[in-house]
């Protein structure tokens, strides 16, 4: 039986930058604008206007590095590589 480990990071909904960018995204949705302003597009990593970007931004990719040594293996997280605004990192083991 094998085991896999997944590492996921989460941005807080209370993060001021997140709240500001979500407000811009929602305003674009309500106004029928199809393309996000440059700063908001860079924040969400997409230029198109879509409500799903809100949920996608709450769960962010975090750089992880394989760790192997003397019959041990796992992941290392380099603290300086954690994206801005991340307030929680979850390690999930699945069997």
Question: How would you describe what is shown here?
Answer:
With 95 residues, this protein is α+β, with helices and mostly antiparallel strands. It has one domain (4-94). It has 3 helices and 5 strands; from the N terminus they run βαααββββ. A 3-stranded antiparallel beta sheet has the order 2-1-5. A hairpin with a 2-residue loop joins strand 3 and strand 4. Helix 1 crosses helix 2 (38-44). The radius of gyration is 17 Å and the shape is elongated. It starts with a strand and ends with a strand.
SSE inventory with pairings:
Layout: E1 4-11, H1 16-31, H2 38-44, H3 52-58, E2 59-60, E3 65-69, E4 72-76, E5 86-94
Antiparallel strand pairs: 1-2, 1-5, 3-4
Helix pairs in contact: 1-2
Widest beta sheet: strand line-up: 2-1-5
List low-confidence stretches. none
Biggest sheet: strands, sense, closure?
A: 3 strands, antiparallel
Q: Helicity level, as a percent range?
A: 25-40%
* Coarse shape: elongated
Class by SSE composition: alpha+beta
How do the helices and strands follow one another from N- to C-terminus?
EHHHEEEE
Estimated share of beta-strand residues: 25-35%
Radius of gyration: 17 Å
Total count of strands: 5
Q: What would the average pLDDT be, to the nearest integer?
A: 90
Number of domains: 1
Give me the oligomer status. single chain
* Cα distance spanning the termini: 7 Å
What is the structure about, briefly put?
This protein is 32% helix and 31% strand. With 95 residues, it is an alpha+beta fold.
